[in-house]
Amino acid sequence: MQIDHVALFVRELEPARAFFEHYFAAQAGPLYHNPKTGLSTYFLLFDTGARLELMTLPRLNDAPNAYPQTGLTHLAFSLGSRQAVDELTARLAAEGYQVISQPRVTGDGYYESCVSGPEGLRLELTE
Question: What's the whole-model pTM score?
Answer without folding.
Answer: 0.74
